[in-house]
Design a protein that fits this description.
Oligomer: single chain
Number of strands: 9
Helix content: 55-70%
Number of helices: 12
Low-confidence stretches: none
Largest sheet: 4 strands, antiparallel
Mean pLDDT: 76
Shape: flat
Distance between the termini: 177 Å
Length: about 475
C-alpha cells in the first residue's frame, strides 16, 4: 500500500513538472514573439543564415507584422520612421557664374521602407541618436546643394524654381538612399546673393511690368477718345440729316440750311483735328514711356554685366594672390629650416672643437701635475723640461746666423794687435758673441739658468766701462 501511494505521488509530481516546463516554454515563446509597430522598422540581427552567394546575412528588416526572435542566437532593435526636419542654412555657394548665393532651406527626411534602402538604414543608422542622423543628413544635403548651384546660372535658379527643386531632390535623394534615408519634402525659404544680382533682376521685371501697364492704359485712353469723337460726330450727322429732311420741304429755310451745313462742316473739321491731335499726343506719350523703360533696362543690364566682370576679375586676382602668398611662405619656411640646420651644424662643430681643446688641456694639466710630483717640486720639474728642450734652444741660436750670406771674405792676418791671437780668430769670436747667450734666453723667460749648466760670470765695473780708445 505504501509503495503504491509513493508511486502515485511520483506520477503526480512528474506530471506537474512536465506541465510547468510546457508553460515555461510557452511563456518563453510568447516573450520572444515580437510585433513591429507601423511607425517603426524592426531589425533582427545575429545568426540569420546565408545569402544566395554563400555570405552571412547581416540582418533582417521587418516593417509591420511580427517575427519570432530566437533566444541567445538572435536579438532585435527598432528604427524610428518619424519624419526628421533639417534646417539647412547654406551660405556663400558659388553658382555657375562664380557669384556667391545664399539658399536657406528646410528639408524633411525619414528612414525609407523600400527593401534595399531599408537594409542600408539597418547597416548604417542602427544605434545612432537622432542628433547624429540629423548631422549626417545635413552634411550630405549641403554638399549636393552646392553641387546643383555650381551647375546652374542665377537667372535659371531664380526663374525656374521647379527645375531647381527637381535637381536638388534628385541629387539629394540619390545620396541619402545610400544610408537608408528617403527625401520627403524640400522647402526653399529664399534665394539671395552677395552682389544683389537677383534683386536687380526683380527690379528689371517690375519696371517692365509697370511700363507695359502704362502703355496699355494710354492705348485704352486713346481708343476712348476716338470712340467719343466718333459718337459725337455720328450724333451731329444724324441731327443734320434730320434738320436737312425737315428743311427739304421749306424753301424759305434753304439759306438757313446752307448756313447750318457750313457750320456743321466747320465743327466736323474741328472735331477731326482735335481727335487727330489727341491720338498723336497719346502715341508720343506711349513712345516716351517705352523709351524710358528701355533706358532703365539697359542701365540695369550694364550694371549686371559690370558686376559679373568685377566678380570674375576679383576672384581670379584673389586666387593668384593666395597662390603667391603660399609659395612665399613655403620658400621662407624652407630658408628658415636651412638656416637652422646650418646653425646647428656650426654649433655642433664648435662644441666638438671645444671638447677636444678641453680634453687636450686637461691631459696636459694632468701630465704637468704628474711631472711635478715625480720631480719632487715645481723648480725641479721646470729644470727637467728645460733640459729636455735644450737641444731645441741651441738649434734656435744656430738658426739665427744660419741664413747670413757672405759673398766674399778677405783676411789680413797680422797676429792681432796684442800679438797673442790672430785677427781671424778675433773675427770669429766676435761673430759668435753676437749670438744671444743662453743665460739671456732664460732671463727673457723670467727664469735663471740651472746650476748644473754652470755659473755666469758677472761683468766687473771696468768691463762695463766703455773703452777710452
Amino acid at each position: 500500500m505504501l509503495f503504491g501511494a509513493l508511486t502515485v505521488v511520483g506520477m503526480v509530481a512528474l506530471i506537474i513538472a512536465i506541465v510547468v516546463v510546457l508553460i515555461s516554454l510557452v511563456a518563453v515563446f510568447l516573450s520572444r514573439y515580437r510585433k513591429c509597430p507601423s511607425d517603426k522598422i524592426m531589425v533582427i540581427y545575429g545568426s540569420m543564415g546565408k545569402e544566395k552567394d554563400g555570405t552571412n546575412r547581416p540582418s533582417k528588416c521587418i516593417h509591420g507584422g511580427a517575427q519570432f526572435i530566437w533566444p541567445i542566437i538572435q536579438a532585435y532593435a527598432f528604427l524610428d520612421l518619424t519624419p526628421i526636419s533639417i534646417n539647412v542654412d547654406l551660405r556663400g555657394a558659388l553658382s555657375h557664374q562664380n557669384i556667391r548665393v545664399d539658399v536657406p532651406s528646410r528639408f524633411t527626411v525619414g528612414i525609407s521602407t523600400e527593401p534595399g534602402v531599408m537594409q542600408n538604414a539597418a547597416e548604417r543608422l542602427l544605434g545612432l541618436k537622432l542628433k547624429d542622423i540629423q548631422d549626417l543628413c545635413n552634411d550630405i544635403i549641403l554638399g549636393q546643394l552646392r553641387l546643383v548651384i555650381a551647375m546652374m546660372d542665377i537667372e535659371e535658379i531664380n526663374s525656374d524654381r521647379d527645375k531647381f527643386l527637381e535637381a536638388v531632390s534628385r541629387n539629394v535623394e540619390g545620396e541619402l538612399k545610400k544610408i537608408g534615408i528617403r527625401l520627403i519634402n524640400v522647402n526653399i525659404t529664399d534665394i539671395t546673393d552677395e552682389s544683389s544680382y537677383i534683386e536687380a533682376l526683380g527690379k528689371e521685371a517690375a519696371a517692365k511690368a509697370i511700363n507695359d501697364a502704362k502703355r496699355s492704359v494710354a492705348e485704352k485712353n486713346r481708343d476712348g477718345s476716338i470712340g467719343e469723337a466718333n459718337a459725337v460726330m455720328d450724333q451731329r450727322i444724324k441731327v443734320a440729316e434730320a434738320n436737312s429732311a425737315a428743311v427739304d420741304g421749306e424753301n424759305k429755310a434753304k439759306a438757313n440750311v446752307a448756313q447750318s451745313n457750313a457750320t456743321l462742316r466747320e465743327v466736323e473739321a474741328e472735331a477731326q483735328r482735335r481727335a487727330s491731335v489727341a491720338e498723336k499726343v497719346a502715341e508720343a506719350n506711349a513712345k516716351r514711356e517705352a523709351y524710358k523703360a528701355q533706358q532703365q533696362a539697359e542701365a540695369v543690364r550694364a550694371e549686371r554685366e559690370k558686376s559679373t566682370l568685377e566678380a570674375d576679375v576679383l576672384v581670379k586676382a584673389e586666387i593668384e594672390k593666395r597662390r603667391l602668398e603660399t609659395e612665399a611662405e613655403a620658400e621662407a619656411e624652407q630658408m628658415r629650416r636651412k638656416a637652422r640646420g646650418e646653425a646647428d651644424a656650426i654649433y655642433a662643430k664648435a662644441e666638438a672643437e671645444a671638447r677636444g681643446t678641453y680634453e687636450i688641456l686637461s691631459k696636459q694639466a694632468d701630465g704637468f701635475k704628474r711631472l711635478v710630483e715625480a720631480a719632487g717640486g715645481s723648480d725641479e720639474a721646470v729644470k727637467m723640461l728645460i733640459t729636455d728642450k735644450l737641444d731645441a734652444l741651441v738649434k734656435l741660436q744656430v738658426e739665427a746666423i744660419k741664413n747670413i750670406k757672405i759673398d766674399k771674405v778677405t783676411v789680413w792676418d797680422s797676429m792681432g794687435a796684442d800679438g797673442k791671437s790672430p785677427a781671424t780668430a778675433n773675427f770669429i769670436a766676435g761673430l759668435l758673441k753676437s749670438v744671444p747667450p743662453l743665460n739671456d734666453v732664460f732671463k727673457m723667460s723670467g727664469l735663471e739658468i740651472p746650476s748644473f749648466l754652470g755659473k755666469v760670470k758677472e761683468p766687473t765695473a771696468e768691463e762695463d766701462r766703455p773703452d777710452d780708445k
